[in-house]
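4-N-acetyl-D-galactosaminyltransferase: structure, please.
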Amino acid sequence: MAKKILCIIDYLGSGGAQRQIVNLAVEFKKSGHDISFLTYHNKNDFYRLTLEDNNIPIACIAESNYIKRMIKMRKYIRHGKYDVILSFLAAANFICEISTFPYHKWKLIVGERSANPHLLISWKLRLFRYFHIFANQVVANSQTNIELVRQVNSFLSKKKCKVIYNMIDLAKWMPSDSFTFRKNELFTIVVLASHRHLKNLNGFIDAVLLLTKEEQSELRIQWYGNILDNSFDLGIIKIKENGIEDIFQFENATHNILDCMQQADAVGLFSFYEGFPNAICEGMACGKPVLCSNISDIPLLITEKKLIFDPNDVFSISKTLRFLLSLNADELNEIGKKNRTMAEQYFDKEAIVSKYITLFNA
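Here you go.
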């Protein structure tokens, strides 16, 4: 039976949470459901065109006053006669949970997408999670995230909490038949991440500086992401001071992620924390070796443990880079095949969509 579903998030920027909720909405629409979107920041509409191309209407309550915003969004939600509301990220979740008072007929599913360790010490972040008792279901994209939330809010039952990994279209995200590892004797690592301190560009640069000149000469970094704080400017200064401009190439966030990834030798992520990073899921689906911080559920899913490092330790990052650069084409291909197998097991689009539909109908 078709459902009337409202998807809510802060804005339609290029972030991982935005990508997942937009892709889910498109799949729900294809399944015959009535889908619409509500945001509350009218900026950086990276995914607006995707929704418009799929005839998914978008409403934005761009109210700067937080209290007025909550009141307006609550009214919009309660008057919409929705069957299901799906929200992602803490503030949007909180507004949706407040909107359930004093009663509600719709099913509210809130999505936890960031295993931020500050959750344990920030009164604001903790308060947001206490309101999860008013949601019908709390869904996270990693077991690590769910455990963190339940540590903060002990009133949440295991039954109410569910882990659903990121959705990947495996027919689209797949290895390229024409790709060859170590083309032109260079090793290219693609990083898909916005520029924020938590993404750890500074630590990554320091790790590259620990490599030998010969290792550095092989390495090429292509980093795609929008600039959100001064970490990018600080990184550029350090790169220029150390004369390693030839290694790093920076570009804005792009819709052409697939081609970038398929032509890379590996996919990297150096964050201090994440929910569960889309780039790693997509890199695995494309049959790439991935090197990543020991965060979230990544250590559970990556079979080559030598490609996992401590993001707080530049020597650990550098050691991982050195190991990766030591691998030949056959070894890289074998690691990539294992990652593809794991992606097929955990990130399959049809299976992920089915899990959400099951929650809608429960």
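Notes: The domain at 4-167+348-361 is CATH 3.40.50.2000 (Rossmann fold).
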